[in-house]
Amino acid sequence: MRLLDAGFSSCFVATTADDQACYIQWLISPRENALLQKTFDGLFPSLGPNEMLLEGAYTPVAFRGQRIMPAAMALIAERAADLGAERALTFVSDDNIPSLKGCKRAGFAPCLQRQAIHRLGRCRMVFVPLAAGTPYAFEAPPGT
Description:
- Helix content is 26%, strand content 28%.
- It has helices at residues 2-6, 33-40, 68-82, 97-105; strands spanning 11-15, 21-28, 51-58, 87-89, 112-119, 122-129.
């Protein structure tokens, strides 16, 4: 609801043959950087001119485990490419294994890690580039 209320412009909804919503996600372009920063207060990086952000993914419980997410994400990422994006980003916490697996199935690869830095009672996010081939959290050997 936060994305809808904020007024982000590109919401994609996957539906079943009988028009039930089974997946939803927003595609955010760099022209919405000001709104992105205002709404999320630094939780996401400002997007470069050739980047887009997929955010706000939700699959209703009745449709989970059916691999709708990766299929829909892949289609949304294709739409981002059609609109000129060379890179589509999405952020998922390391402990959300089902979503991470969905991202992998959709063709996404780890490339950027969000880290919270706490100092003097304030929190800010830093975004650390990852080396090509960095494994997903669920693929890394324990202790790495």
